[in-house]
Design a protein that fits this description.
This protein is of the alpha+beta class. The protein has helices at about 25-30, 35-45, 45-55, 90-100, 180-185, 210, 240-250; strands at about 1-10, 10-15, 25, 65, 70-75, 85, 115-120, 125, 140-145, 145-150, 170-175, 180, 200-205, 220-225, 225-230, 260, 280-285, 290-295. It folds into 2 domains: about 1-75, no CATH class; about 85-295, Fumarylacetoacetase-like, C-terminal domain (Fumarylacetoacetate hydrolase, domain 2, Alpha-Beta Complex), CATH 3.90.850.10. It contains 7 helices and 18 strands.
Length: about 300
């Protein structure tokens, strides 16, 4: 299923897309105890099965909202915790970042021996069509990063790789927007990646059963229609089971947690000179089966 959060009557509501026209079923209207996708995820498989019955139209009386009448927000506009992010997790990107002069944490090797984990605050999250506030960065070094995001569905600690996908609820897209100069100046990645509005997410959250083999998904970025990034998820240095195992060794993963898995080569700092985002640009990040997330730069 394709799950969304949309704006209606001044508030955010959870929905599910039910046809090829993008019509939305308001989940809270047919399941009154569910007021957000976080609550749906936390309710577990029985709630998802009940929603599937409504989405198939087997439960009569549900009113659909035309896609044109709904403003989509990030599927999880207010995550319960910071988003867990992975740095330098595609081989070619690890090399381009290592060689760019912006990686203040790099050693002699471009490819990390272990996953590099940092976080983005939940206050960075915005949705489809929301502006990327490049002018907020006084260093004028804003960059784009398309990333596959994994949404955890089941609580777990010390999760083995073999069991990792049992804990995945679904997938969405994030753009891990970054101030490169601040990332370099502070010798770590938190400051440069945590401006409000630096994590566009969406356009929807797709349940794992609909995605199938996630490693076959194509990942792409265009800026003003020009392709900048293009890769396949199977090219990750550390795959999704490894990331889930690594995080859950030290902390309990909770339903609704989001893991952004890293970006491929082709970011702005990979060019000579760097090609940073500027007001008036349009950035579109897309992943096959997950849609396209587009945002203007202001």
């Amino acid at each position: 299923m394709k799950l969304v959060t949309f704006e209606k009557d001044g508030g955010a509501r959870p929905g599910v897309i039910v046809d090829d026209r993008g019509s939305i079923l308001d989940i809270s209207a047919v399941m009154p105890t569910i007021s957000s996708l976080n609550e749906l995820i936390e309710a577990g498989p029985p709630a998802l099965e009940a929603l599937a019955e409504h989405a198939r139209g087997t439960v009569p009386g549900a009113r659909l909202i035309p896609a044109a009448d709904a403003k989509l927000l990030a599927p999880i506009p207010m995550p319960n915790r910071n988003i867990f992010c992975v740095g330098k997790n595609y081989h070619e990107h690890a090399k381009e970042f290592h060689d760019s002069g912006f990686d203040a944490t790099s050693g002699k090797d471009a490819v990390p021996e272990h996953p590099i984990i940092f976080s983005k605050s939940f206050t960075t999250v915005t949705g489809p069509g929301a502006p990327i506030p490049a002018t907020a960065d006084w260093t004028n070094s804003v960059d784009y990063e398309v990333e596959l995001a994994v949404v955890i569905g089941r609580r777990g600690k010390n999760i083995a790789k073999a069991d990792a996908y049992d804990h995945v609820f679904g997938y969405t897209i994030v753009n891990d927007v970054t101030s490169r100069h601040l990332q370099h100046q502070h010798k770590q990645w938190f400051i440069g990646k945590n401006f409000d509005g630096f994590c566009p997410m969406g356009p929807w959250l797709v349940t794992a059963d609909e995605v199938g083999n996630v490693e076959e998904l194509d990942v792409k970025t265009t800026v003003n229609g020009e392709t900048r990034q293009s890769a396949v998820v199977r090219d990750l240095i550390f795959d999704i089971p490894t990331l889930i195992e690594t995080l859950s060794r030290v902390m309990t993963l909770l339903p609704g947690d989001i893991i952004a898995t890293g970006t491929p080569a082709g970011v702005g700092i990979g060019f000579d000179p760097p090609r940073f985002l500027k007001p008036g640009d349009e950035v579109s990040v897309s992943i096959s089966k997950l849609g396209t997330l587009s945002n203007p730069v202001t």
